[in-house]
Design goal:
Largest sheet: 5 strands, parallel
CATH topology: Rossmann fold
Length: 138
């Protein structure tokens, strides 16, 4: 069984109950810090995607998602296809229109090579990042 915690975003709350019997869904409100670190995956929405770099933009004012995108070893982000911007400049122009106190830019799993110049993935964040791209029905 996988322990999965989802953000408070309505879209995430609608999608997670359909994830199957092999998943134990955890409520962020009821988790201690240690229990959050024991979860295998965190599911959030992404407010914007940047086509030029493959970067996700998460705005703090939209949902309680910062820890869910950073702590579990797997981060799953749900992004609407209509929210893909061409460049970082385009995404930042859209972010300026909201009241977010902080934004998180995610371009793949965390990476560092400061330990004896050896590349290590997932030390300061998730080891794996998945993006579920949703197309709107026409």
């Amino acid at each position: 069984m996988r322990r999965v915690v989802g953000s408070d975003a309505p879209l995430v709350q609608r999608l997670l109950p359909r994830s199957g019997d092999s998943v134990v869904l955890e409520s962020l409100d009821r988790l201690t810090r240690d229990e959050l670190f024991a979860c295998e995956a965190g599911v959030t929405t992404a407010q914007w995607g940047i086509a030029e770099t493959g970067t996700l933009v998460l705005e703090s004012a939209r949902e309680r998602s910062r820890l869910l995108s950073l702590v579990p070893p797997i981060h799953v982000a749900v992004l609407s296809a209509s929210c893909i911007c061409e460049s970082l400049g385009d995404a930042l122009a859209r972010v300026r229109q909201t009241a977010s106190h902080a934004i998180t830019l995610i371009t793949g799993p965390s990476r560092t090579s400061d330990i004896e110049l050896t590349l290590v993935v997932g030390v300061h964040g998730p080891q794996t990042v998945h993006v579920l791209l949703l197309e709107e029905e026409t």
